[in-house]
């Protein structure tokens, strides 16, 4: 089933709302006119009833009373009048056959369910095509009192009823025509109101992966749609950045893989180019093994970063003594550092909660990077400390200052601040990116600074005592 368009739904809603309002207005008008006619009829009947009451109370004889009642009804052809005594004597009647059938039953002295002294009973009835409104009341009879008479009086209200029928017809026709007009006008108004949304939709239809730098225009956009446009533009900006990073990452991966694969291909071609001694084949295989190990490390690092990007890293809550981890790494890198003439220094104590292997990997990457870029005769220093509710780990090494435009990219994947080392260093360009991912997985941050001949990498992690108290 096809879903109605927003234009159709809003147009129908507008038409239904207008129709409901007009129906309510018409009903109120019809009730008001009917009440007005009812008040006019009662006022007319009350005036005539007062005249009949005066005649009943002042006339001596029945014949004189009948004559005076005839004078009243002359000139009022639409009037119905019936007067009889409480004992059942008929005094006067005019068009009495048009009275309601239950006004008097044959042989009854008084109307059913009526007692002397009751207030007037207002009636409305129909006889054939005629409609009447009347009153039934008991009035004193004769100047001396002691007697009473029942008076039934009515007037023809057919002209009022015809007017009301005509009014209802006009109101119904007006409501129907207005509903149709409201639907048409609503459709046009909605079409005009949704024009900015159609422009936005047509602009969105032109976007694809090759035009993620385009943005939806905000000029002339209503406030209600501007929020949507802003959110969509922000989403495009995020997509553009994600695609850019993915494209750069793919290019970097291809570039990084090309070197070891080219080396492996070249070594294999050299080995197959001539018959060689077993020792030469062994050297070629060792060289190939190094390239394979480099590829394996790179793939493992990329897998680790992919898990971090998808939030799959789940650090534990083990209390980790960072000083012990640093001393263990010093022992591991001691031979390499001595070979390069680089000293290792540790200052401070600190503990945090997390995954020991991941934190050890982050420290190892920072320490490897620092040793690699420190000149002989200088020292790499690790400082541990606390600042407010965080643990600070600083790894410092002396060396040339890194330009600010490069500092912001040090933690990007496959980025190296020294292009000369790009393809000849032992690292794959993912070490610092892994450090940042590990810090973020532990709810911390990683940043770098370089000035005054000193480059510093700083990790901020949660304190062990704060984590423990939060867990309890």
Quick overview:
The protein has 472 residues and is of the alpha+beta class. Helices cover 54% and strands 19% of the residues. The chain folds into 3 domains: 6-165, Beta-Lactamase (2-Layer Sandwich), CATH 3.30.450; 223-309, Helix Hairpins, CATH 1.10.287; 318-471, Heat Shock Protein 90 (2-Layer Sandwich), CATH 3.30.565.
Q: Could you walk me through the main structural features you see in this protein, from its secondary elements to its overall organization?
A:
The strands form 3 sheets. A 5-stranded antiparallel sheet has the order 2-1-5-4-3, covered by helices on one side. The chain has a 5-stranded mixed sheet with strand order 7-9-10-12-11. Helix 7 runs parallel beside helix 8 and helix 8 packs antiparallel against helix 10 (431-441). Mean pLDDT is 83; it is low at 104-110, 112-116, 420-425 and 468-472. Helix content is 54%, strand content 19%. It has 3 domains: 6-165, 2-Layer Sandwich (Beta-Lactamase); 223-309, Signal transduction histidine kinase, dimerisation/phosphotransfer (DHp) domain (Helix Hairpins, Orthogonal Bundle), CATH 1.10.287; 318-471, Heat Shock Protein 90 (2-Layer Sandwich), CATH 3.30.565. The protein is of the alpha+beta class. The chain crosses the membrane at residues 170-190. InterPro entries: CusS-like_sensor, CztS_silS_copS, HAMP_dom, HATPase_C_sf, HATPase_dom, His_kinase_dom, HisK_dim/P_dom, HisK_dim/P_sf.
